[in-house]
Amino acid sequence: SSLSSYNSGLWIEDCDIDEDELLAMLSPEELKELQSEMDVMIAPDDNVPVGQRQKDQTEKPPTGTFDHRSLVGYLYWEKESNRMLEEERECKIKEINEESPEDDQKFEETTIKAEISNSENSTEQTQEGIKGADKETDPPPPMTSRPSGNETNLESTLDKVRNNNPSVTEVNLNNIENIPKEMLLDYVNALKKNKHVKTFSIANTGVDENIAFNIANMLRENRGITTLNIESNFVTGKGIVAIIRCLQFNETLTELRFHNQRHMLGHHAEMEISRLLKANNTLVKMGYHFEQPGPRMVVTNLLTRNLDWQRQLRKEEQKQQLLKEQKEMLQMYENSLNLPPGLLQMLGYPLEVLQEHGLVPPLENMAESRIQPAKEHSEPPKQLKHNSIPKTKKNQKNRKTH
Q1: Which of 247, 168, 161, 150 lies closest to 205, judged by CA?
Q2: What is stated as this protein's family in its record (predicted)?
Q3: Burial 47-62 (b: 16+ CB within 10 A, else e)
Q4: Nearest to 192 by CA among 170, 171, 222
Q5: φ, ψ dihedrals at 276, nearest 5°
């Protein structure tokens, strides 16, 4: 009985304990320790989902909501980029397999010759460097008024561009500080009708997306600029894509440089550039390093295609020019020999036959004869004798009948 009364007294004292007061006396570290012990002692509730039974132990703040559409778009882009890369690799493997072993031998011989020439040049440069060290150093360049060192007069150059002055073939505004945006727009608008400026450089001048859109419109109308440099500016991917899109209407631009922009272009812009560049046949140089391998390989192959096309075009122009010069020479000698026009060509007498009989100078002397002034007392041209003309089968038959 005494033991039972003692236990009942303890139970009464336990019931009188204030739990809130005890918890208020604990420090934050002690509360965390108590919570971790309670989580271990208390069994998890089966009705609660598995993902919610464990306590969240991460202390990093949430980065944002989950975007399903952006994730799907990124996976699609990654798949397309890998596919484009694999196609380019397969094409290159086929081209390598089709090459003959003779080309490999020629390539090895050229590499050996290049290494020998490079070693000789390096020895000569070291000897020249030793000799130049004994001489006095050159004086430093003179100081300029601008920190950038670019002394281009903005107003006078703009007036010359507006007036289509043929003396201005290059506009270099690189690194000029604090150029007003309105003046850059005036330069771009003035170049729409200009036919003499070949190079337009505005690197590190604060060009933004608005000016990039105006440059794109300028390239649709301009037919003189061959080199455009807009590196180290604030142009976004939309501005670069707009410039590339307008290149399908431009057939004169051969070099475009837009590397080191403040904003990254992004993989979507790079894929769009590689797609739009297929419609252009004149661009052969591009100053930009693609981050993704797929667009990089596509653009490299497109620039190589344009370079081959330009080379074939030059060869065709040279061939046409040579035929034109030969035709002019035949007409000149027909006039000098009092022959009907087109007779030599109709009879099939090319320049080689006339050169054998001494009636036409060699092709190497054609350019020299045109440059040198004609002498006052020139010798009369030789007349075409009957015996000098090669006998044809028709003439031989006529003689046999007579």
Answers
A1: 150
A2: Belongs to the tropomodulin family.
A3: eeeeeeeeeeeeeeee
A4: 222
A5: -75, -25
If you search the block for the tokens 């899109």, which residue do you land on? 245
**pTM for the whole thing?**
0.52
Interatomic CA distance for residues 153 and 142, integer angstroms: 18
Task: Using pLDDT thresholds of 50, 70 and 90, give the confidence band for residue 334.
Answer: confident
| Backbone phi, psi, residue 180, to 5° | -65, 145
Residue 21 φ then ψ, to 5°: -65, -40
Task: Fold for 154-291, please state it.
Answer: 3.80.10
Decide if 198 contacts 226 (C-beta within 8 A): yes
Sheet holding 255-257, edge to edge: 170-172, 199-201, 227-229, 255-257, 285-287
Partnered with residue 227 across adjacent β-strands are 199, 255
Residue whose tokens read 């070693």: 119
Confidence of residue 126 (pLDDT cuts 50, 70, 90): low
Tokens representing residue 167 in the block: 């003396």
Distance of CA 383 to the CA centre of its chain: 59
Q: Are 81 and 271 in contact (CB under 8 A)?
A: yes
Tokens representing 91? 């094409």
pLDDT, tens digit, for every residue of 190-219?
Answer: 999 999 999 999 999 999 999 999 999 999
Measure the CA angle with vertex 194, ends 190 and 200; round to 5°.
75
Instruction: Report the alpha-carbon distance of residue 215 to residue 187 in Å, rounded.
Output: 10
- What number of other Cβ atoms are within 10 A of residue 247's Cβ? 20
154-160-162 Cα angle (round to 5): 100
Tokens of 191: 């170049």
Q: 389: closest CA among 349, 340, 361?
A: 349
Cα separation, 324 vs 318, whole angstroms: 10
Q: How many residues does the chain have?
A: 402
- The string of DSSP letters for 181-227 reads HHHHHHHHHHTTS-SS--EEE-TTS---HHHHHHHHHHHHH--S--E
Helical H segments across 337-363, by residue range: 343-347, 351-356
